[in-house]
Amino acid sequence: MSTSDGYVLGTHKIVDHGPTSQRFNIVIMGDGYQASEQEKYATDVKAFIDLLRSTAPYTDLWCGINVFRIDVVSTDSGADDPGTCGDGSTGSGATPRTYFDSTFCSDGDTRRLLSCNDDTAINLAIAQVPAAHEAVMVIVNTNEYGGSSDGRVAKFSTAPNSAEIALHEMGHLVFGFADEYDCRTCVAGETGHDHYSGPEPPEPNVTINTDRNTMKWRASLTSTTDALPTTTNADCTTQDTQANPQSATYVGAYDGADYFHCGCYRPSFNCRMRALGNPFCLVCQQAIRDALHQFLPAESLTLTTPSIAFDNVPEGLGGVGVTTYRAIVFEVVTCATRTFRITAGPTGGFGTPLGTSISVSANDNVPIEYARLWLSYTSTTAGSTSHGTVTVQCDETGQTWVVNIIANTVARPKSAVTFVLDHSGSMSEDAGDGATKVGKLREAASIFINAMLDGDGLGIVRFDDTAQLLMPVTNVGPPVLGGGRIAATGHISGPELDPAGNTSIGAGVVAGKNALDAAQALGAPHYDVTAMLVLTDGEENTAPFLSAVGSSITANTFAIGLGQPENISTAALTTLTQGHSGYLLITGQLTPDQSARLNKYFLQILAGITNAQIVLDPHGLLTPGATHRIPFQMAETDYGLDVFLLTQSPWLIEFALEAPNGDLISPASVTVLTNLHYVQTAGLAYFRLSLPAEPAKASGTRAGLWHVLLKIAGRKLDVSSHNAVYASGSSNAQGLPYDVVIHTYSNLVFEARATQSSFDPGATISVVATLSEYDVPIDDRAHCWAEVTRPDGSMFTVTMSETDPGRFSGQFIGDVAGLYAMRVRATGSTFTGNLFQREQTLTAAVYLGATRPPETGGTQQFDWCAFLRCMINGQLIDRAAVERLRQSGVNLDVLAKCLEAHCSSKRGS
Ligand SMILES: [Zn+2]
Ligand SMILES: [Zn+2]
To answer: How far is the CA of 323 from the centre of ligand 1 (A)?
Structure first.
């Protein structure tokens, strides 16, 4: 019966208040717990820790305590229970094989005396928690009542009040308390315990001295005048039976303590050191405080934001300001509760949207707490500034801090984007849904143009084997009728994009960069963000190549590959975009039910350029008579909203929004809401509004559950109906397919990216997403996952775990060649508890032949197809020579066939 009767699993720091060298460390281990009982062990330990934390005076000393739990497996369950004991009791006689060899009746006389091999316990504590074990405790897995402490290790069983035993035993072990009870075996007629006759005992909670001027707890006496002793036992042959003449917490000198009926005194009538279930008496509590004082961290309240800057808050739509929050932050190290309160201000027109006080308390596992008091600023007109101060006081300590606040409003940050569009010959092919690729491109580009924000610039470049600037970067202007929009739409729909020629994506990218550089060189209008959207359906086969031009790009670069990954320069475009804050999206074959995919990709990239967040993008089929109610969450962090309806003929659909308070926002609302735009154009209708939607009803038209309402035009929208979002089973198979895309402009930012270990089948595809709110990582308040569609159309979900605060990651193996479309989603709650949702689409691709040598530039790239065509097409060998070669056995027709078979597999021509 020894350590051979079990093994050690490991150690967990279950309460962490700082370095072991500076804190009071409790090390707990279990005996008589089998492997299958480790969960029970953890529960038993937690029950003890919970009791300890809620027991005075540990309550206010908790921040000075660490707890380590060592998990030990014993061969058998329970503890030794000798059949006989000197006190006349009988036991089961069991002798289970346990790691610490715990046993009842360990002194041969007292059944409840539960002991173990202390050396084993101490050595294990030293090994697992080196040089840091102020209290070593063994919890013994038996329901029989018992415990003990001998100055080295406290032992206690799992009897119903075992945790109480542990508190009592810890009093002996750590603080050197005596037992305050006035008997030893405490059976009637016990002898040898009538009158204490020894010297003054060393323990702090028992004494033979009742002189109030010299006794050891004189500083804690309740009264300066009451006679001492407080009680005297009239019959020293037995325990005193008189009631307490004073209050329960009275400190005096009560006769009977330290196992004797008379002559030794205890501070209070009762105490946990006398009988379980009582509080520690005030003398014991003071001794615990004195002992733990050295382990408490120094209290500190540190203001980490001496000034608050609402820098460059953008103007809102239609003169309605954008409201932004910032927090005054204190780093708090305390053992108590500290309340921070705004006692003056804020001056300067700033708000306190979430109240004027906040309390923080010591937590179980974080040495430092953060207290945040929120301020708000609402933007006005560009160029205006505000400043003010706010005074914060700590209720408990009286400390005050004055925080400066500054703010300014700027015009909305403007973006310039160039389209870099492939019009090589293959763009005339079917995209998969019956429309040509160039047709799909024209539709998607047109939606992008119509969705752009007034004031943003657009340039257009086309490329085949060379590149041409079709339109320099131009302000698109107001919705629908802006001059830039009309000009851009003309280029997109006109013959300039008719398919022709080879593919030099690099030439297009260089021309796109030049267009952006030219716009910035003009100085006005100034663009805060520059971006490029590259669209191609092919593999680059003509210099310059992306690998040669990529390093010169400074704009954020996004790309869309129209078609299957093996037919597109997937690797080169991935490198180009990921090196420039963007990403590549690949459409795959566009089946009819994915007809809107390219449009959605364009809108998502628009969101990426304008810093909008994607809330939701559902797809549905609207049937006559049905009203679709599509729910979506907005939070107080969101200050702007775009709701796009993508459908062939938007004028056939009644389209409205329902705010959380039930108010309906329809196209007609533009006459009363200056912060609302409604746009309807080919293939697209949308609402664009700043939040709150109705400034006079801020609480009901900003955070909360919104709905998009859709209905085939002709009957009034029924707001109260609760039809399913995706109506099905309608007898009328005819319906209008639609997609809804919801973007928000927000202080809650979600960003997802995918990377892959290679482009070969079997590659590991990793998805990483981050969430932040007012630039602070969203810690432990969100869930994130990725819905992945495999190349064969089947789906699975990748769980993304929070690896760091606000950072989520997951991965999967791309074992089948083809396209993996990932819908990365997040839900959670904001600081103030409002729900939010976000999503983003990503693609990854693996394909056969991916590891062929990359095309790295003109000098290393030789176009054998063009070379051989040139030779065959009569420019090198004339007809007479062909005939002579044939006669001598060289058939050039075979060469021509080989050439076609090889060269026609290369796309982009
Ligand atoms: Zn005791
Ligand atoms: Zn006491």
So the answer is: 63
Q: How far is the CA of 208 from the centre of ligand 2 (A)?
A: 15
Q: Two tokens at 880?
A: 């007479």
CATH of 300-410, one of 2.60.40.10, 1.10.8.10, 3.40.50.1360, 3.30.300.30: 2.60.40.10
User: Under CATH, what is the fold of the domain 3-175?
Assistant: Collagenase (Catalytic Domain) (3.40.390)
Q: How far is the CA of 59 from the centre of ligand 2 (A)?
A: 17
For residue 266, the CA-to-ligand 2 centroid distance in Å is 7
CATH 3.40.50.300 is held by the domain 749-846: no
Same fold, 300-410 and 749-846: yes
Give distance in angstroms: CA of 274 to centre of ligand 2.
7
Full 3-state SS string of 494-546:
CHHHCCCCCCCHHHHHHHHHHHHHHHHHHCCCCCCEEEEEEEECCCCCCCCCH
Which CATH architecture describes the domain 613-746? Sandwich (2.60)
Q: Please report, for residues 384, 487, 492, 585, the alpha-carbon distance to residue 439 in angstroms, rounded to integers and kept in the order given.
A: 46, 18, 10, 18
Of 367, 374, 369, 366, residue with least CA distance to 337: 369
State the sign of the Cα–Cα–Cα–Cα dihedral 879, 881, 883, 885: negative
- Ligand 2 centroid–CA 250 distance in Å is 11
Give the max Cα distance, the chain: 141
Nearest to 808 by CA among 759, 772, 844, 764: 772
| Ion ligand 1, residue ranges at CB < 5 A | 179
CA of 170 relative to ligand 1 center, distance in Å: 9
Distance from Cα 277 to the centre of ligand 2, integer Å: 12
At 730 the pLDDT is 38
Is the domain defined by 415-609 classed in CATH 3.50.50.60?
no
Q: What is the pLDDT of residue 860?
A: 42
CA of 264 to the centre of ligand 1 (A): 16
Tokens representing 2?
Answer: 């020894």
Where do the structural domains in the chain lie, given as residue ranges?
A: 3-175, 179-294, 300-410, 415-609, 613-746, 749-846, 864-903
CA of 413 to the centre of ligand 2 (A): 69
DSSP letters, 288-317, are HHHHHGGGSPPPEEEES-SEEEEEEEEP-G
Specify the pLDDT at position 869: 55
CA of 389 relative to ligand 1 center, distance in Å? 58
Task: Name the stretches of the chain with pLDDT < 50.
Answer: 1, 718-733, 853-862, 874-875, 904-909
